[in-house]
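Subject: for your reference before the review

Hello V.,

The reviewers asked for a structural picture of the protein, and I figured it would be easier to keep everything in one thread rather than splitting it across files. Below is the amino acid sequence we used in the manuscript, unchanged from the supplementary table.
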Amino acid sequence: MKCKYLLFAILLILACSNRNTPRAVSEDFIYNYYQHADQAAALQLSHGLAAEKLEDEIARVSEVRSLDQQIDEMPEIEYELIGTEEEPTHVLFNYRLTIESRGTTTHTRNVVINTEQIDGQWKVVNFDEY
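And here is what came back from the structure prediction:
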C-alpha cells in the first residue's frame, strides 16, 4: 500500500513541475511521438517545420488509422540523452533510442530534436532521425 502512495506522490510532483523547459518539451515530444505514436499530442508541442512534418504524417496515416484508435502492439522504446547544444533562444538535443520489437529484435536510432522559445513557450521546431 505504501508503494501506491509513493507512486501517487511522484506523479503529483511531476504534474506540478514546470514543463515549459527545453528538455521537458523534448522529452514530452519523445514520449508522445516515439513511445506512444501519438502524432496529435506531439503536434501540440511543435511549431514550424516540426509541425509541418507531423501534419503531413497525420494526413498520411489518417486513412489507415483513426485518431482514437489504439495500436495493439507498440515496441518498447527507451531513450538516453547523449548530447546538447545550447544557445539563448534554442537548444538542440541528441538522443539515442533503443527500440525492442516483440521482445527479441533490438534497434538503435539517434534522434535530434531542436527546441526554440516562441512567445514564451518552448516548442519543438524540428526533429530528425539518423
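For the response letter, the relevant points are probably these. The radius of gyration is 16 Å. Strands lie at 76-86, 90-101, 105-118, 121-129.

Happy to draft the paragraph if you're swamped.

O.
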